[in-house]
Amino acid sequence: MIVLGLExxxxxxxxxxxxxxRGLLAHRVHSQIDLHxxxxxxxxxxxxxxxxxxxxxxxxxxxxxxxxxxxSLEAIAYTAGPGLAGALLVAAGTAEAMAAALGVPAxxxxxxEGHLLSPLLAADAPAFPFVALLVSGGHTQLMxxxxxxxxxxxxxxxDDAAGExxxxxxxxxxxxxxxxxALAQLADQGRAGRFSLPRPMLHSGDLNFxxxxxxxxxxxxxxxxxxxxxxLAAEFQAAVVDVLTHKAKLALKQTxxxxxxxxxxxxxxxxxxxxxxxxxxxxxxxxxxxxPALCTDNGAMIAFAGAMRLAAGAAGHAGGAVTVRPRW
Length: 328
Ligand code: KG4
Ligand code: ZN
Fold this sequence. Notes:
This is tRNA N6-adenosine threonylcarbamoyltransferase. The chain is built from ten helices and eleven strands. It has 328 residues and is of the alpha/beta class. α4 (111-117) packs across α10, α6 packs across α8 and α8 (229-255) runs parallel beside α9. The model has no long low-confidence stretch (mean pLDDT 95).
């Protein structure tokens, strides 16, 4: 099956072609970072308009990259949620229209399922079952994954997501948008331990997280003694990494599984990767990451999730009504 995948849930327009048995044929992402930078965050209306501007050209480019015509498409997968309603509607409307015109099934995909399955696109892919640590701007979750569509939530953040904590903390520290990568870069130049920040819920015994207090703790340090920004960033990053690593270890112990899969934008964080590598290697477990280019939002993970859903028996539907699920 040749599946076209479209992603427009937030500030990246992603398009990809995946063929069952062959793998990724082509993929392109257009990031709106420059568009939103002046506002210090994503402006939903501007995001939607830019997706409208970019998506048709990206689709043409990806088809050309793969040397294929539209009539070779056998299904169209798109992110149906969660995300910004207006932004989601761009890929959804395009996908449903294309599916109707071409007479192929349309497949609404959950954005997090895309992230969750993205490590399976790597040459060295994990086998089921595994524990997934999903760390994006909107979610922080630990899941047990037994197969496509067979997901059990083990724990999640009770407030801010890990990526959200990176972004908000970067903002109070005066770092440029997008905050997460900027904060991580600064942290790598500093030393953790010079200031003491909490490790929220580290010993709560369950697999839940809480990150909103960390931003407040950083603000308190900034107001009080002040701090060398790099050292404060390093301590913040260490706090997030400590908690994520500890809970991932706990999830592997509780499930008895030996494979950990990391997905979502924060999975690009090098300090987190180093700690997870060390934690798993010491116990003879293994950790898998998506390719760096597929850590943040992209169409490849959506095309792939669509192909996996089809292979698992999903029928999709004939293109028609356009509905999205912003809070799915
Ligand atoms: O998965 P993603 O691209 O979008 C969502 O679905 O949310 O994740 C974006 C999040 C943002 O919060 C961003 O700041 C964070 O991932 N992020 C990072 C790094 N790269 C991206 N956080 C920490 N360190 C990084 N290197
Ligand atoms: Zn995402």
